[in-house]
Write a structure and sequence with these properties.
This protein is of the alpha/beta class. Helix 2 crosses helix 3 and helix 10 packs antiparallel against helix 13. The two termini are 40 Å apart. The structure holds zinc ion. The site of zinc ion (ZN) has 3 residues, from loops.
């Protein structure tokens, strides 16, 4: 089975063929640390984490780097406002960001979080090369990239020159072309700066990623991800920088872009002040709920965020965890191996893989996993199964769920029921025998209040503890 990936560069689904055999080198644009990350950022990180999990599942040896921008206009501005050093402000938000991605179960799959401030010499070196090769020019201590010198500038964005012109809003008479972009910004009073051949200053945003990745991976690597809003100018400029500096093409073999997250029709962003931070949402919801929420939409599509919509993945997760409990309940030494279940498992694993191998179709693969749970619930409500089979179903469900970062929690079956609940179950059975449904319902509500769900099965009342 081959993995097909939609490549923004070619606008086609292509078979993944990494440059170095089974090793996949991957870079995703990370956080600018001047404030807490929001659920729009989380969409990108979680969806790329799911992609990494699937690549690893297929046996690829993934090296995943995600940068942290700790030198930036916004950081400088906020630090000035708070009266603190920019790097100490950045440090504070870096720590908080790492806590957030850890809570989202994203952090452990990132092998390296390179920081801008650690790569300044490499950026200066790359800018020097671009000047020497005639792609960049110096004006009053600033360095600009001359976009007209790079023939394939619009190959990723596929924009026309007219569109390009419209995107550059600040005209600057010192620039050769209105859409030339800054590689180096000269120091303004009070700003942090590093020494360079062009005077004190700091790097522009775009040069960061290419200086880092050329250092980490060399002139070419496999996979570059980020939000679709980065195609232009950020990723467009990355290609112009790297391919001009190293002379090697393509700089990146596969470009992957995640759809943006909107809120009430507008893109969630710090500048629009319409954001909800990851922390806020995780204070109200389990990380697995948020992860499943992202998995229910294809990564290239946008999402319109409404916190109410988290109810659905929450209910789905509860159903899946209950299924795992039901499977454990149904396991018995007298149970048999159900042929039907064996066939279901094999079919689900196959369909799940087909969906994931088709440009990471998580919503479809989740549908298959959920469908498996439904079928198995039907079977185990009627019959006991062997311990081995129960174990196999749980393992398989966890393995597939693990691709989305769900079903990673322990499932405990309490053997002892509190006396109080035991008594209620007996009373309820008695009421049901008398067909006194009203009393039976009242008793069920009472059990719920105590944290126990009672379900009627042909074999009698089954109970389970409510989660959360
Ligand atoms: Zn970037």
């Amino acid at each position: 089975m081959v993995l097909k990936i939609f490549n923004t560069l070619t606008r086609r689904k292509e078979t993944l063929k990494p440059m170095r055999g089974k090793r996949v080198e991957m870079f995703v644009c990370g956080q600018t640390v001047y404030d807490d990350a929001h659920v729009g950022h989380a969409k990108t990180y979680v969806q790329f984490d799911t992609i990494v999990r699937w690549l690893k599942h297929l046996g690829y040896d993934v090296f995943y780097a995600q940068n942290i921008t700790d030198v930036d206009d916004k950081i400088i501005k906020r630090a000035q406002k708070e009266g603190v050093e920019p790097l100490s402000l950045a440090n504070r938000y870096t720590q908080r960001f790492l806590e957030d991605v850890d809570a989202l179960k994203v952090k452990k799959n990132v092998d390296l979080f390179p920081k801008t401030s650690d790569y300044i010499p490499q950026m200066i070196e790359q800018i020097k090369t671009l000047i020497e090769k005639g792609y960049a020019y110096v004006v009053d201590g600033d360095v600009y990239y001359d976009v007209t010198k790079f023939k394939d500038y619009t190959k990723l964005s596929r924009m026309s020159i007219e569109e390009l012109k419209r995107h550059r809003i600040e005209p600057d008479p010192r620039k050769r072309n209105s859409f030339d972009f800054a590689l180096w910004k000269s120091q303004k009073p009070g700003e942090l700066a590093w020494d360079s051949a062009w005077g004190k200053g700091r790097p522009g945003w775009h040069i960061e990623d290419t200086a880092m990745t050329v250092t980490i991976f060399g002139p070419q690597y496999d996979l570059h991800g980020g939000g679709s809003d980065l195609i232009f100018p950020h990723h467009t400029n990355e290609i112009a920088q790297a391919e001009a500096a190293t002379g090697k093409k393509p700089f990146v073999k596969y470009w992957l872009h995640a759809g943006v997250l909107n809120i009430k029709g507008a893109k969630m962003s710090k500048s629009l002040k319409n954001f909800v931070t990851i922390r806020e949402v995780l204070s109200r919801h389990d990380p697995e709920v948020l992860r499943l929420y992202y998995a229910s939409t294809h990564y290239r599509k946008p999402i319109d965020f409404d916190e109410k919509d988290l109810e659905r993945p929450k209910a789905e997760l509860e159903y899946l965890y209950n299924t795992l409990r039901n499977i454990k309940h149904a396991a018995s030494s007298k149970g048999e191996t159900s042929k039907e279940i064996e066939t279901l498992l094999a079919e689900t694993e196959k369909k799940f893989a087909e969906a994931m191998n088709n440009d990471f179709n998580t919503s479809l693969s989740f549908t298959h996993l959920y469908g498996l749970a439904r079928e198995i619930n039907k079977i185990v409500s009627k019959q006991k199964i062997s311990h081995e089979q129960a174990e196999r179903i749980v393992q398989s469900s966890r393995e597939l769920g693990g691709i989305f970062g769900i079903l990673e929690k322990e499932v405990l079956i309490e053997e002892k029921l509190p006396k109080e609940v035991e008594k209620l179950i007996k009373q309820r059975e008695a009421a049901r025998k008398k067909k006194d449904w009203k009393t039976a319902d009242i008793i069920r509500e009472e059990a719920k209040r105590l944290g126990y769900i009672l379900e009627d099965t042909p074999e009698g009342v089954r109970w389970r503890k409510m989660s959360g």
